[in-house]
Design a protein that fits this description.
The complex is a heterodimer of chains A (149) and B (163). Chain A has 149 residues and is of the alpha/beta class. In chain A, 37% of the residues lie in helices and 14% in strands. Chain A is globular. The chains are: A alpha/beta (149), B alpha/beta (163).
Chain lengths: 149, 163
């Protein structure tokens, strides 16, 4: 890494920023609010974000909605299969605190006890504008050289 | 006023039926545990060809589980609800899989969530819960708050304690 010139590092970060391929783990209402971004309304492909179906092609894992105890095992498996650098976006209040399932026996309250999360997007569920704001903030961080966890 | 289906059943099983409510398109029967299977098979013979649900209620103060069977007849367009009670300490009941195969998955769920033993059901392995070592979670004596506190909000579990 030290042999790379700053210019190469910068252009590499830029290349990463504009080709974020995302894999979704959609479990709940958060994904309903992500759908306008997939469709032509907000159109995430103009930012270079593509929905892929294999974790091995993915740079970003989007966890949308509550995560059950069973699902968190699968999310960990997906996360482990993604190549570095990898980023995790968590949508909505459920992955943060449990949300309205704060006293449910079957849902996990905080997914960052299990996988590192790089961007929390607020809302119950988050509006598409919030998601866009979060994605652009994440893209700016990646452009600035953030390599994920 | 009973409709004719209820009067036939009452004539045939006078001891088993506690109480009944019958309307034009709806019948509700509360029956004894001993006679419930005969009554259900009688319904099957009468043309009630669909078992839509088997559910359970935990009456912890009375020490009983109540099992509720929902039946439907496509030809008669009548809904039937049959209720029966079993003791909480020994929750055993005969399975109705040989009458309606569709009841299998409902009985499997009832076994997992309430711990009711359906005798004769071929497959009662856990379906929804993974690595579950506590009481069945839908029982009233399963303390959800205590479990959630211990499992998710413990001292080593992130912001709510110290990670």
């Amino acid at each position: 890494m030290k042999s790379l010139t700053p210019r190469v590092i910068k252009s590499r970060a830029e290349a990463r920023t504009y080709s974020l391929w995302a894999i979704n783990y959609f479990s709940a209402c958060g994904f309903m609010e992500l759908l306008p971004w997939v469709g032509s309304g907000y159109d995430m492909e103009r930012f270079g974000i593509l929905a892929v179906s294999s974790p091995r092609h993915a740079d970003v894992l989007i966890v949308s909605g509550y995560v059950t105890k069973k699902a968190v095992k699968r999310i960990k498996m997906i996360y482990d299969q993604m190549p570095s650098p990898k980023y995790v976006l968590a949508l909505g209040s459920c992955p943060m605190t449990g949300g309205m399932y704060w006293d449910s026996y079957s849902t996990v309250k905080q997914i960052d006890n299990y996988i590192p999360v790089d961007m929390w997007i607020l809302g119950c569920p988050p509006k598409p504008e919030n998601i866009g704001h979060g994605i652009v903030m994440a893209m700016n961080a990646i452009k600035g050289g953030f390599e994920g966890h | 006023m009973d409709n004719e289906i209820v009067s036939v059943l009452k004539a045939k099983f006078p001891e088993s039926i506690h109480s009944s409510v019958s309307e034009d398109k709806r019948i509700l029967l509360s029956v004894k545990k001993e006679g419930f299977y005969q009554i259900l098979s009688q319904f099957k013979d009468m043309g009630f060809d669909h078992c839509s649900d088997v559910t359970c209620v935990d009456y912890i103060n009375e020490g009983e589980f109540e099992l509720i069977y929902h039946l439907w007849s496509h030809s008669k367009k009548i809904r039937v609800i049959v209720k029966t009670r079993i003791p909480r300490e020994a929750p055993r009941i005969k399975s109705i899989v040989d009458l309606w195969i569709g009841a299998q998955i409902h009985e499997r769920e009832g076994h997992e969530m309430f711990g009711v033993e359906f005798e004769g059901n071929p497959n009662l392995t856990p379906l929804f819960l993974e690595d579950w070592e506590e009481l069945p979670p839908f029982r009233k004596d399963f303390d959800i708050r205590e479990y959630v506190k211990r499992e998710y909000y413990g001292e080593d579990k992130g912001y709510f304690g110290s990670k």
